[in-house]
Structure formats: structure tokens, C-alpha cells
Amino acid sequence: MIELLAKRLRGVLSPEQIITDRQELRTYECDGLAQYKATPGLVVFPHTTAQCAAVVRACAEFGLPFVARGSGTGLSGGALPHAQGVLIVTSQMRSILALSIEDERAVAQPGVINLDLTRAAQPHGYHYAPDPSSQQICSIGGNVAENSGGAHCLKYGFTTNHVTGLEIVTPEGEVMELGGYAPDPPGYDLIGAFVGSEGTLGIATAVTVRLTRTAESVRTVLAAFHGTDDAGAATSAIIAAGIIPAAIEMMDALAIEAAEAAVHCGYPSGAGAVLIVELDGAQSTVDSGFVRVAELLRHHGAFEVRVAADDAERALIWKGRKSAFAAVGRISPDYLVQDGVIPRTALPGVLRRIAALSQEHGVRVANVFHAGDGNLHPLVLFDAAQEGAAERAATVSGAILDLCVEQGGSITGEHGVGVDKSAYLPRMFTADDLDTMQLLRCAFDPAGIANPGKVFPTPRMCGEARRR
Amino acid sequence: MIVTPSSIVDAAAALKQGAGTVLIRGSGSKQDWGGKPPSPDLTIDTTGLTGIVEHEPGDLVAVVGAGTPLSTLQAALADKGQQLALDSPHPDATIGGIVATNVSGPRRLRYGTARDLLIGITIVRADGIVARAGGKVVKNVAGYDLGKLFVGSYGTLGLIAECAFRLHPLPAALIQEREVLGLAEAIDFATRARRSPRAPIAIELDWRDDLEVCVTYDGVPAWDLPGGAWLFKLTCALSRLEEVLRGARDAAQRHGIPLHLKGSLGVGVLYGGAPEATPEFVRDLRAVTQTVVLTAPRHDGIDLWGPTPGLELMRRVKAQFDPEARLAPGRFVGGI
Q: How many angstroms separate the CA atoms of A33 and A25, rounded?
């Protein structure tokens, strides 16, 4: 079947846009979450919306699944290929189609790199606000699929708050325009439904985004605490004071150790936890807010408060945080990156229980998180060479998610459900909840060929009677 | 028949057991917005689904019954120095009605609309099944974001029973700058304000006889919709604001209609109010920009919603959620 499809696509795509060679196909066997692997049946690189639509139409006709992939940086296996399907890689669709500062909008093809949008807008005093840690390599199309966040989404919101228009290829291969430069298009908010649907409702082939005015002033501070309880209390105090920083990030002792080993970021020695707090806005507001933040940090036990004097010092403060995931590789041969969310006020209690889990199972856990919005990234360390270590790590990782759900939080704040967490989704939602979500899926993709097997543990049969 | 359920379970039973067409109503303040469905067999009044289910100030999140009046919620939040940053022209409007119509006012420039502030939703489907999406944490990408689909759905997909919102700290005292200007100067003034480092909360136009622009730098600006039996919502790209405002006023003049325009020069959402209007006037407004007729005393064959890209897909969404088309038939885009 896949051979027939390949033959058909040769009429639409040039030879270098199709990979059929087994060895080359294996290059695409996983995304950023390497523990799941599947060799795709076929890989294609459309250059245009029309080509993308032609590929999807052919998939629909042959009844074969397709999976879209941007830069392949996803951390939940959302772009894990389908062995009998087509992997549609959007990395060749990488033009910024429009940049209109007067309208505060840009239109990007899905393969455009996140940071390149900001680079294009920067000379005009604007930027693209969502800034996932992978922003130097991740693509806008992938950001739309995953509703990507980032350190600064505490103040500025997620991808979904910044997309005002989409051109999509539906799972039936139709090209559809939704929204645009103007706000509030009439009808259901299909853009809101599409963003974050993890490639299960179709492929975005052009994305209209809002550009954000870059703040006049940015101030960044690093505060060192004896432990995470104090750092958590300081976070709550800042929010309670009515200050919404651009970012509040926390790292615990083990995460600091890893970051020091990897990038020598020079965080205060002896710190059991550090907080990075960034304020931005008008000069006067930032200055007055900053005095208050420094007071609150000291009041809650910060023994060192280090203020970035310039961009270079700010970059150094952020370097430790942004490299934290990779840095953990320096102190552990293997690790799992977790992505749970809890209500901010539950932070101290949850951290204590993570510590208890860690001890109980003999598994080290380094904690890095977006403290401002309660998004935890526990890094569960293990050595796969030791018997049973991987299983113990998986147990702890899963128990942390249960803890998040128990606290009224979420099993994923920004990495997505993908293939990795679909089994956990029923811990957060009832069968009726999941059934209702899949009504949307049935409207977009009745044949179930768009990224099947992701997000939902049990696919809904779209034709079945709904009345009970 | 009218039923006023006092719990989600009751609301589910009403939808499951009721036959025929259903109209969902909160305070009724926007009951005449959108198309008028034929007399419903069943009206479900949501004003019994009240109460602040949860408010943890440290989390800046509140979970609230959909029948709760916005004013009640705001008063409770203000006690803790917080707000739900949504504007409503009707003080008694319920949370559910505001979400269902996605009504928005001046502060959307800073805070966005209900679609940006809603973080979790509990709905009752047309078949009586209760479902939830999102949650009560701001950052959450688990499952589909059904909340967004229900924002602005005008009661055609299901009953909104409970909502969780992201909150904001109450701003300080009101700081505003007002100028009465000519159109070109007004746009220039608004553009400078929008790009100012002071990042205003709102930039509002009010144009009846004089044209006034009011920039809010802090505080909560007062707001009301323009008066008149006809209410229009005009939306456009920011760079087209001057052209759209001039075009709308010219059209009004040609048709002899006294059009009162208000709206946000920060986001490109304008409201027009008029005592009288005609299908030809609506056609001329649509020639200027995307225009929705929110209220009209007579429809005279006017398509209130106008051209709707993606309509076919919307019909399919409707058919999945409400296969028997029981919920407010004819009220929404394309006769949905």
C-alpha cells in the first residue's frame, strides 16, 4: 500500500522530497523523546501548502495515517512516526510570509524557527512572546501543535494566546483559512480548538501570530535560599503582593549541581534552591517592583540576592536554567524529564512528597520548574545499566504525575500528551470527558488518520450512536 | 417550559429528559444577541448554578458556577485584591452568558477575552452527558481545549455549567488620558499609546458627535456599549482602523443613520449602535470590514453573522455535539 502511495506522490513531489530508503527512514524514527521509536513507512518534505494538501489527500484516499513533524524537538513523542504511514516533515516550509508591524502580526510557514520570528520583529521593537527552551530550533508548526509555553508565559501566555489565524490542511486534504489579522472571526473558535491538538486535527501550513511590544526595561535577579520551602514561600509572596513577573524559575540543589558541572553558571555556593525572577515593563514600574521583590526574597530567607547588571550577566543567570535538562546528563547516565503542574500554593508540600518518593525508591530527582505557574519539571535520574533502575525511575515519574492530579493539577503543562502520557490521561479525565473531546476529533478527522494513537488512549468510533 | 436547575446533575437531567428544542439562558441580558431561534420547547435557566466553588488567592484562580453574576464574583474577588479581568456591559450578566457570547470590552487589550482567561470548563452536552476539559491550573496542555470551543458558541454546543478562570491582581487607582481629536489625529494618538512603554490597559474610542480617545494606564475603566436597537460588531486589522472608521461613518451618513461608534483602538474591535438600520446599510458596513449584527429588532432577511470561513467544519462540529440540532437552532453562524 505504502509503495502505491509513494508512486502517487512522485507525481506531486520531486525525488529529493521523498525518502523511501530504509536506512534514511530510520533517521526519523523518533522525536525529542528517544525512548519511543518507529520507522516511518515514508517521509516527505512538502515545500508548499498545495503539496502538503496533496500528500494528505493521498493518505486519505489510501486510508493511510500521517504524522506531521516540525523540528522533532517534542518531548512527549507527539511526532513519533507511524510504521504504516507517512511522516510529513514541514522543515522545508520555512518562510516568514508577512511581517506587519503596523498590524502587530506576522505570518509564518510551519517550519519557521520560533526564535527567527523574534529576530525578524526585534529591529522594530517587537518580539514573538512564547519562548520554549528549545526556541533556537523548535518550529512554529510544532509550537501550534503542542501549544508551547516557555519561561515567560507566566505573564505573556502560551502559543494559543498569540495565534490569530491559521491555514490548515484538514485530515481530508482540504485547505482551510481560519481567522487572520483581525480579531474575533465569527463562528466557533476553531483556532482555539486546533492549537494544542498535537497534530490530531490536521496540519497548520501557515500561522498568523501576534507580535508583542518589547518591554522598555527588564531586570533579572538570582536569589539563593537554603531550601526549596523558602524559595516556594518567596514565590507565593511575590504573587500575593500583586506583582506578575515575566518569569519565576526555581532549581533545587541537585539541578544546580548539574548546571554548574555543565555550564559553570556560578550560582551561589551552598544554595539548596535558587530562584530566578525577571520583571519587565516600563522603567518606573520595573524599578519600583524590583525593590519590592528584593525585599520579599530577603524576607523569605534569601541569603544572596544577585542582580544582573547587564545583558551578559542576565544571560549567565539564564544559562544555568536553560541548560538544566541537558546538564543533568553530566551527573546521571540516564534521566526522565517529567512535566506536571500543580496549583502554585501546593508547591512546598508537593516538593516534600517528591523528596519522600525519591528516598523510598532510591531514585534521585532533580527539580527544575516554572515556579510562577506551578509547572514542575522533575528530572528523574537513573542508570539503565543497573537492573531494575529504569523501572524504578518510571515508577517515581508516574507517582509524581499522580501527585499532580491529586492536587488538582495537570499531567502536562507544556510537553503534551503525545504517546508518552496517553495512558495517564484517564487519571485526569473521565471516560465522558475524553469521549466529548473526541467529538471534536470526529468532526475534523472522521477516518482517524491524523496522528492516530496519540493523546487519547482509546480512539472513539466516529460513527457510533452517541445517545445512551 | 422553563426549568431552573440548582445543580449540574439537575441540569444534566433536564437536557437528557427534555424533548425538542432547548434555549439556555443566564440573566437574559444578551438573549436577543444573534439569530432568534423559534420558540423553544424547553428553556433552561442557569441562574440556579451559582456559587464560587473555589478561590485560592495564592493561585490566582477561581472556579465558579456559570449562573453566578459577574458582579457577585468581582465583589468576592475584590475582597482579596483580585479581579476577573473581563468587561460586561450588563452588571447582572452571568459568567456563563459572558463566556457563551465572548463579550469583550476595553480591558481586552491588556488581558485578552474570556478565551484567554478561561482555564477549565464543565459542560453538559445536548444528550445530558457531563464533561470537563482543562482544569484549575493556568498551564495545562492535557487533552483538547474544549473551553475555547465553547467560548462564543452562543449556547449551540452545550450548557456551560462551571468555569475556572485565571485571575489578576486588582490594578491601582484609575489613570486615564482623554483627548477629543479629528480621526487621523485620534489614530495617531492611539498608535503612540499602544507602542508606549507604559503599556496601557485600554485604548478606547467614543465617537458620536465628537470623537474622543481615552487611554487607561491603570485602574478599571468604566464601559458601556453604544445605545440603539441595532448593535454591530466591526473587527479589523490595526492598520485599517482609520479606513474602517471613516468607511462606517460615511456609510451611516449615506443611509441617514445616526451611528454611534465605540471600541478598542488597541485591538481593532469596534461596536456600532444605531436606532435604525437597513439591509443595505449592513451590506455597506460589510464592504468596509467584517461585521456581525449582534442585535436587530427585525432581521429583514439579513444574515446577522455574515460570511464565515470554515463554516462547513463548524457544521460538522455542531453535528457531533448536538446531532439533533436541539440547542438554539438558527441562532448562530450559517443558521447553526
A: 17
Q: Is A123 on the interface with B (CB under 8 A)?
A: no
B335 interfacial to chain A (CB closer than 8 Å): no
Find the CB nearest B237 among A103, A149, A408: A103
Candidates A164, A287, A401, A439, partner chain B, best to mutate (most B CBs within 10 A) = A439
CB A455 within 8 Å of CB B159? no
B168 touching A (Cβ < 8 Å): yes
As beta bridge partners, residue A306 has: A222
Q: Could you say which of 3.30.70.2190, 3.40.50.2000, 3.10.180.10, 3.10.25.10 is the CATH number of the domain covering A215-326?
A: 3.30.70.2190
Contact across the interface for A408 and B135, Cβ inside 8 Å: yes
| Fold match, A215-326 / A332-438 | yes
DSSP of B105-153 = -TTHHHH--HHHHEEEEEEE-TTS-EEEEE-SSSS--SS--HHHHHTT-
- Search chain B and give the residue with CA nearest A283: B197
Instruction: Please name the residues between 78 and 137 in chain B that touch chain A, using a CB distance below 8 Å.
Output: 81, 102, 104, 112-113, 115-116, 123, 125, 127, 129-133, 135-137
Interface check B199 vs A, CB under 8 A: yes
Interchain CB contact of B59 with A (< 8 Å): yes
Report whether CATH 3.30.465.10 matches the domain B2-170.
yes
What number of H helices and E strands is found in chain B? Answer: 10, 17
**CATH hierarchy code of domain A2-89:** 3.30.43.10
CATH architecture, domain A332-438:
2-Layer Sandwich (3.30)
Cell readout for B289 is 470590514
Per-residue pLDDT of chain B (336 residues; tens, 9 = 90+): 999 999 999 999 999 998 899 999 999 999 999 998 889 999 999 999 999 999 999 899 999 999 999 999 999 999 999 999 999 999 899 999 999 999 999 999 999 999 999 999 999 999 999 999 999 999 999 999 999 999 999 999 999 999 999 999 999 899 999 999 999 999 999 999 999 999 999 999 999 999 999 999 999 999 999 999 999 999 999 999 999 999 999 999 999 999 999 999 999 999 999 999 999 999 999 999 999 999 999 888 899 999 999 999 999 999 999 999 999 999 999 999
ipTM above 0.90, yes or no: yes
CA–CA gap between residue A428 and residue A440 (Å, rounded):
19
In A211-362 the beta strands, taken as DSSP E runs, fall at 212-213, 217-225, 247-252, 273-281, 304-307, 334-337, 340-341
* Cβ–Cβ below 8 Å for B137 and A343: yes
Sign of CA dihedral B122, B124, B125, B131: positive
> Which A-chain residues 396-455 have CB contacts (< 8 A) with chain B?
408-417, 421, 425, 428-430, 432-437, 439-444, 455
Residue window 140-179, chain A: list those with CB within 8 Å of chain B.
Answer: 146-147, 149, 153, 157-158, 160-161, 170, 176-178
3-state secondary structure of A136: coil
Band the pLDDT of A464: cuts 50, 70, 90. low
Residues of A whose CB is below 8 A from B335 = none
